[in-house]
Amino acid sequence: MNKYLQLNSCLRYYFQDFVDFSELESSEGSAAHILLAINVIVENEPNPRVQSLNLNIMDKDMNALRRKNGIHERESHIAVDYPVMSKSREEYGNEHIDFCFENLKVDRSWSSDPHDINIYTDISFGLPAIKSNYMESTNRIGKINEKLEKSDTELDAMVNQMQSSMATAYSRLRDMNEDTYSKQTIFYILILCSYFGTCIFEILWLRRVLRLRKLA
């Protein structure tokens, strides 16, 4: 098992660094449980045709508590219930958990080249820490919702202002169009009147010329 830990990227956490022993002493029964909330973020996704990213979570005796094979999503949420069989302070000092990431090569061909994977883990030990993180996340979400609501209000005000401006501009443009249409109509009527007047004048002038020359 030590060879397994050496060949893979493993992180070991001792519970006494994160959960006070008094929390276990106050629990009922001869055994206790520590709940862990794990958030795994994969920065660059593995190539499933070349490599397989696995997560193996083990207790101090190398028993698998949780195993997740073929991780391909960017973010994973995992919950682990770690049993503490003895409430002895000395034995509690040895209680630990191992997180091992396996970057296994699936394609055995010589041309395959699996790349390194950057992984970030966020672990909450115990219900108080999980509750605290949940409250912080809820507060952050609440603040984000407030900002979104404020942005929605500002956006609605901008839309209403734009609609009002467009209505005013539309009314002004409509009046301008109507005024332009009226002026153009009068102008066209004057042109037609001038044209017909010129035609009538030319006809009358031609008739007079023909009469004077006794051609009509």
How large is the share of residues in beta strands? 25-35%
Portion in helices: 40-55%
Class from helix and strand fractions? alpha+beta
- Which spans have pLDDT < 50 for at least 5 consecutive residues? none
Strand order of the largest sheet: 1-6-3-4
Shape: elongated
- Subunit arrangement of the protein: single chain
Rg over alpha carbons: 43 Å
What distance lies between the first and last C-alpha atoms, to the nearest angstrom?
131 Å
Helix count equals 4
Key traits:
216 residues, alpha+beta, Jelly Rolls, four-stranded antiparallel beta sheet, three-stranded antiparallel beta sheet, GOLD_dom, membrane, DEBR0S1_30438g1_1, transmembrane helix, transmembrane
Verbal overview:
Keywords: Membrane, Transmembrane, Transmembrane helix. Residues 93-210 form the GOLD domain. Pfam families: EMP24_GP25L (PF01105). The protein is of the alpha+beta class. It has a domain at 2-137: Jelly Rolls (Sandwich), CATH 2.60.120. It is built from four helices and seven strands. Strands 1-6-3-4 form a four-stranded antiparallel sheet.
